[in-house]
Amino acid sequence: MFLESIAFAMAQPQGGAHAQNPIMAFLPLIILFAIFYFLLIRPQQKKAKEHRQMLDSLRKGDLVITSGGLYGRIVDIDGDELSLEVANKVVVRVNRNFISALVSNRKRGEKGSE
User: Fold this and answer.
1) Would you call 113 helix, strand, or coil by DSSP?
2) Which residues contact 101 (CB under 8 A, 6 or more apart)?
3) Is there a domain that residue 53 lies in?
4) In angstroms, rounded to a whole number, what is the distance separating the alpha carbons of residues 47 and 52?
5) For labelling alongside 74, which of 47, 54, 103, 107 has CA 20 to 30 A away?
6) What is d(CA 67, CA 51) in angstroms, rounded to the nearest whole number?
């Protein structure tokens, strides 16, 4: 009698019960991916694109912040290497990728843009 009840439990459902559509089975995963894309992935890509554009637009005289927290003014650009003046006559060389933010586009005392 015990084995008979197991056999009925393993049988296919009878009547109007049909197998679920495979797309409907994956629908929660698709919705979850869409939520992650619009809330996490897309904004991060947009922020990275803006940072790349900022790095490409750097020029002499710009006041920048490095990822280490140093404020400096760009005095020379040589490819991916920037020379920053961090104090009077103190020049530090940094890689362009370590610039985290652009503070100002103008030199001190300058009225218009370059």
Assistant:
1) coil
2) 54, 64, 65
3) yes
4) 9
5) 47
6) 13
The answer to whether residues 52 and 69 belong to one domain is: no
Which two three-digit tokens encode residue 66? 């490095």
pTM (whole model) above 0.70: no
As given in the structure block, the two tokens for residue 54 are 């900022």
How far apart CA 20 and CA 17 sit, in angstroms, is 9
CATH of the domain at 67: 2.30.30.600
- 47-74 tens-digit pLDDT: 999 999 999 999 999 999 999 999 999 9
Count the residues in the chain.
114
Instruction: Determine the structural domain holding residue 97 and report its residue range.
Output: 59-104
Does residue 62 sit in helix, strand or coil?
coil
CA distance 43 to 33: 14
Could you tell me if 58 and 74 are in contact, meaning their C-beta atoms sit under 8 angstroms apart? Answer: yes
- Which residues partner with 76 through β-bridges? 83
> Six-digit token pair at 28?
């929660």
- β-sheet bridge partners, residue 92: 84
